[in-house]
Input
Amino acid sequence: MDETIATIREHCQALAVEQVPLDQAARRVIREPVRADTDQPPFDRSAVDGYAVRREDRSASFRIVDRLRAGDWKPRELQPGEAVQIATGGALPCDGLQVVMKEDARVEADRLVVVQRDDARHIRFRGEDASAGAVLIQPGTVARPGVLALMASVGCARPRVTRLPRVLHLATGNEIVAPDRKPERGQIRDSNTTLVRAFLGQFGITPEQMRVSEDRASIQSAIRNPQSALGRWDLLLVSGGASVGEHDFTRSLLEEAGYSIHVQRTTTRPGKPMIFGSRDGSVAFGLPGNPLAHFVCLHLYVRQALWRFSGATDAPDFCVGVLAADFAAEANERETLWPARTEMAEGEVRLTLLRWQSSGDLTSLSAANALVRIPPNAGPLSRGFRLFFLPI
Amino acid sequence: MDETIATIREHCQALAVEQVPLDQAARRVIREPVRADTDQPPFDRSAVDGYAVRREDRSASFRIVDRLRAGDWKPRELQPGEAVQIATGGALPCDGLQVVMKEDARVEADRLVVVQRDDARHIRFRGEDASAGAVLIQPGTVARPGVLALMASVGCARPRVTRLPRVLHLATGNEIVAPDRKPERGQIRDSNTTLVRAFLGQFGITPEQMRVSEDRASIQSAIRNPQSALGRWDLLLVSGGASVGEHDFTRSLLEEAGYSIHVQRTTTRPGKPMIFGSRDGSVAFGLPGNPLAHFVCLHLYVRQALWRFSGATDAPDFCVGVLAADFAAEANERETLWPARTEMAEGEVRLTLLRWQSSGDLTSLSAANALVRIPPNAGPLSRGFRLFFLPI
Output
């Protein structure tokens, strides 16, 4: 599995950069250093509602000479005995001031009477968060809400981000029908088209999808389709392709389409017959059609390609959790990826392995938020045993 | 804080149900029990590519009488000495069979020669995953990719889900300008509009947003705006509203608009002056304008309203992690929500508290994936100390 992941990472490179409006940059990867355009904050601002007075001026009462709202810009040199009313966020009129909180003073006629005064200046000083030119966001950062807000604050309104990959997904199989159709005898509904769409949707990617019958001509025509709105895709996913009983069906199709095949099976179950190939910077996966193997291959392998395409710094790596309960693993000579639920309690990452009946059983997948690595030939595992897992 | 959360939860109810196509149901909350429409799988299927023979028939070679692909439906009573070639997923032609894996046999002329035979039947039996009518998805489940795939497999192509809330967001302040504009002296860029949009976008919600200057008439007109595409919203968010130095500015505006005010401050910092009110099943929040407090209030409080609106079973509750390093908390009499990063390593949930300079400092928020509860009057906290946190 680790070798397969390394091979996939090796053959995928960060896609090109494009500029998008800030409100379309959510979940995208920033590809430029984002800098403070000015000192942050850009001027001395009051941190409270109150009254600005000279710091060394310990008068008991002051003459209120102005009222400043946030947004006002009215520089003036305050004199001893003078105060200006100032709102939170308002620009201080000069240096050397202190803001007395509204709650610590009262107004009598036009004069300010200070009831209580401590040493806190209640000012957010120019440049205290960041100096002009400082790099606030490193290239490779995923644009989460806080990142987007930070970009807005420094005027990065059209960030340079990685373009989204163009994805073509073919669900193959003579036995599959669309979810809204009633299967004939011998048929089942196709869940992989739905799964791929939702999986990619998490990354903001909308694939072009086709359900094609499993014969060479249909699939070749879909792959080569010159009418495709995509023109040329970065990622080709083929689900199924073994139901005619030819193990190398997808492999030979991909080879005919010009892909070099780098992986044709994995040592991990489920997902043994997975195929991975590349062609001129684009890559293709042949994914086993059964739902559990398909689900595991998407999260374990296709996810790696998406990560590399994105140019993000943080890799989708395994974490370590502890088993929440004893687990009698069936002995298997192959490493197994097991659907599980994680829970964060008492400082521990606890893993509960979910029961699954068969490789077609989607019920456990619907509850899973992790895939746990069960080592080859594992015996019974005790509560508290540490295992690697992939959050999904 | 807990009392505020309880108050918010109490005043928000699950919104109405609507039916949507499956590919638009991602991240929505399912509001009906989803049942298996037929036995799952609906017929006995081969789990491998191979040859079906009678289970008790231990002949050394067999006559191949048919070739079945997945999708074929060709019932026949196999006779002793007969085999049918069958592909993975193909329907078995009758009961009482076993599938010999392709790898364990060879074909000579038209006859099958079994090289190796074990007891495994290599059949996924009708109903082994679920019986017809069994509830596979409980109401209140969030439609993650695996849930959507499960719905596809049982023909739930137009699920009943909670409608999305209609949200109006007003960013108020005389000092704020749009991110693509250069602030005049005394002005700053508005980051809260971007933050709210990205925060709500995580839940598939697109708010109507307006940047309004902070005077009573502008805001009243925005709230009452009969031209609004929304007509009537479920959630009104007002950011800012204290920069004219009137603490009760938003409160009085909401009261004039018919809201009953249930919260007007919290005991937690940042976010002390937060306002929460309700009116005929809709709710409103007055959020402090400074970025850190605004961020905390969205994740800590507004998130609770969204959860209740959604009808989801799993609540956004606090988890427990351990401090990754000693932390010299500044003594503060109020409980503090501190931006942090979580890491799952060696079975532990480790919390690294992020430095922030001021309540306007967005740099720590851009890196945060958790908000940690620092108890009131906490002294220095040691590595390994357990703390509650909210994943964000």
User: Anything to note?
Assistant: Chain A touches chain B through 107 residues (CB under 8 Å). The domain at 319-391 of chain A is CATH 2.40.340.10 (Beta-clip). The two ends of chain A are 17 Å apart (CA to CA).
